[in-house]
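sorry for the late reply, my laptop died twice this morning and i had to redo everyting from scratch. anyway the thing you sent over, i finally got around to it. pasting the sequence first so we're on the same page, its 163 residues, then the predicted structure underneath. double check i copied it right bc i was rushing
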Amino acid sequence: MFIERNHATMQPAKHSIAPGEGEHVRFADGLGTRRLVPGLVEHDLPAKRLGAPVHTHANEDEYSYIVSGRLTAQIGDDVVEAGPGEVVVKPRGIPHAMWNAGDEPVRFLEVISPAGFEEYFFEVAEPINAMDPERIGAVMARFQLDMDMASMERLIGEHGLEG
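ok and here's the structure:
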């Protein structure tokens, strides 16, 4: 269940979210996303999986707080690996990608600033899982996201990921 708001006061109608609550979506490649509150999602990514190919946000900064496992990200020309308690900063306007090269799942909280882009995951999941390029492109355009799909093959090969 997603947190409902009292629209008169804009206060949450519920003041806590239990494990497993919140709207969930899973992509065919393995990435899972759980909506927590506006601007905050929880991702889980199985071992040896690409989370996202190289892409660039026009309007949002993303901050990934690692809860468990290890997340690797390419941000511009830099490659960083982060573990529990660390934060990966992915600024708007800078191409970035992320993956889990480890042998265990990674779980991380994604803070999106400004809030709103978290809706992207819930709008694009079905077209991605259905492999519908036209609908995928429409969602990406609406969220002003530039995605380099050709980078997938390179990242999977370079980092020993499963396709």
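The first helix runs from residue 118 to 129.
thats about all i looked at so far, will dig more tmrw
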